[in-house]
């Protein structure tokens, strides 16, 4: 009786772990296939996007610089300068010039503490 019980438990564990390993391999292979398809499609789109970017950069260099506008209520000039510097540095690595056209506060439907709680409780387990 004990030997039959041990055989059933070991067989069950073996089947469960074999199926889990099989599912892991299938999901991994599926991810590789999808990733390769996306990169293949991205490669052909990158050549047309590179041509568009060079045209946009040439157009941006010929435009006159924008005039500074007044800061919206509640946002200081220093904060605007930091935002503009961050946007400019983001584009300089790629060779693209970005311009800040407007800055406004985000109107959220929930308080910041509630948003932080939702983020904390819904983020993925892996970091």
What can you tell me about this protein's structure?
This protein has helices spanning 2-62, 77-92, 112-122. The protein has 127 residues and is mainly alpha-helical. Mean pLDDT is 78; it is low at 57-64.
In short:
With 127 residues, this protein is an all-alpha fold. Helices cover 69% and strands 0% of the residues.
Strand composition percent: under 5%
How much helix is in the residues?
55-70%
Structural class: mainly alpha
Order of helices and strands: HHH
Characterize the overall form: elongated
Mean pLDDT: 78
Q: What oligomerization state is this entry in?
A: single chain
Query: For the CA atoms, what is the radius of gyration?
Result: 27 Å
Number of alpha- plus pi-helical segments? 3
Low-pLDDT runs = 57-64
- What's the total count of β strands? 0
Query: N-to-C terminal Cα separation, in Å?
Result: 47 Å
What keywords describe this structure?
127 residues; mainly alpha; 3 helices; 69% helix; 0% strand
Write the layout of secondary structure elements.
Blueprint lengths: L1 H61 L14 H16 L19 H11 L5
